[in-house]
Amino acid sequence: MANEIGQTGPTRSLARFIPGRPRMRSGLVPIYVPFLFLIPALILLVVFRYYPTISAIYHSFTIWDIPKPGEFVGLKNYQALFSDPIFLQSISNILKYTVVRTLLTMTMAIIGAELVYNLASSSWRNIWRLVFTVPMVIPSTVDLLIWKQIYAGRQGLLNEILVGIGALNRPYPWIGRPDTALWALVFIGFPAVAGFGFLIILAALQNLPAEVNDAALIDGCSRLRRVFSIDLPAIRGPLALILILSLNGGLQQFAPMLVVTQGGPVNSTMSPGYYLYTQGFTYGAHGYASAIGTILMLMTLTLSIFIMRARYRRAYDVAI
Amino acid sequence: MLRFRSRLTQHSWRQDWPLFLVLTILAIITYIPFVFTVVNSLKSNTQFFTQFWLPVLPLHFENYERALPSMGRAILNSFSYSIPTLILSLTISGLTGYAFARYRFPGRQILFFAMLALIMIPGILLVIPMFSVIISLGWGDTIQGVVLPWTAVEIVFGTFLMRTFFETLPQEYFEAARLDGAGEMTLLFRIALPLAIPALATVGILNLLFTWNDIIWPLVSIFDSNRFPVSIGVLTFSSQYGTDYGVTFASYVIASLPLIIIFGFTSRRFMDGLAGGLSI
User: Which residue in the set B102, B136, B232 is minimally distant from A19, CB to CB?
Assistant: First the structure.
């Protein structure tokens, strides 16, 4: 083969730039061609992703009021943050929110996907998959506003049900009290089956070889045991992906606080994301807000790396 | 008779009824809020306060008439931001994914991982510096001020999906065409792109869901409330009409319609697109 990668000879350096796999024999491509394809993406990413990342980290060490340039103050923002009770409360809020919310959504997505996957009829599987996909296209702001009304003390759906069955004597303002507001946000969208997690897990399950299941059932393995011993270990790649997306999304959560509670009552639902927004765009403290963002980034980066390492630590794996 | 079940066996009600029961309960809880919203969007306030659950006659369709002007404008605004983003990000993700999948060039691995690393950067961190960029470009309150940053968000995941897809295409197609004298552009437009339509459709749908739902970037970069997209428009509308329950609920229904209609045409693609499996 004339252009095999690793060969010695005059064409070796060119061979690396041949499109596709190295066994290609004809059609040398000028080296600039792939870069031409990449240019639009690179420009956009540099202007709107890489530069802002660096800028945010730099400006977290400044007092910054856009459009004025930042004034360098060293670690002052961070010192202020770690003695800011609202920020500290927002961190504790978001940790509770993220952990419970992730547990809820992942458990329900797995339960939903397993229920559908175990149906014998493939047309029923498709129907149920559709049933739990449609709610995903409701705009998220609409969803949040509907849930705000569900939790409302006046004409709220949850209170109507609970008072109706006699579990409560009188309506309770779920999002109006500091002790329940955060948990109300966690349970928005209950039972939280419908979502990307459900679709991805179901797709992963349906890609598993059917023979494994049949073999397990012949060997007398119960359905429940199969879920824990075969299904879940086999789809841990997709599960790790959903876990990372869910934890990262949870830590930066912003919309439920903005739409439903505005961080209240008494900061009981304040999240770092929403605090960043109010500091930056209500008070013009863009440097302080950047410091909040940088701490959030450190949290999400640490978490993502930790999950990736855990996922690849064991040698055995089932290729999906 | 063997008591195991495979995908080939027919639907057996006796075995599956517990699954159906649990699924039905989950579906009812999931849909109650939406049904409740639609039912009460047709009531006046008096009707809503006297009959919480059931539909009441007469139906107040004028709630929809009152919500329509604001929500219609918000929907048009949303399309004016989402469609350019969709076109741009599909084009760019396609090109980038193709380049990463089919060419060997110096820095390929590094560039790809540098792109993937962006997935781990929280979007909310970038909102403030991006706001500064937009202000210094004079793009506040403009379509490109919303569209280009959104595109930059979308092309990361889009490139990832498109690269995975292009790598699955058989090499032989390209070899054969090249032997027949096809140039690089012909390979891209005549072979790769037609085959990539299903993958592009999936990326496009995910794209549309993201841009339709994103609230923070339009909130930061759009100042004129007449230009707000649905995600913010429905919020400002409900804060104006909050005490008029029927009208507010009608605005929720109108705001949800465009994506439901689009989904009606693309549901198969949407659900199957993810069936290839997303994994790390």
Answer: B102
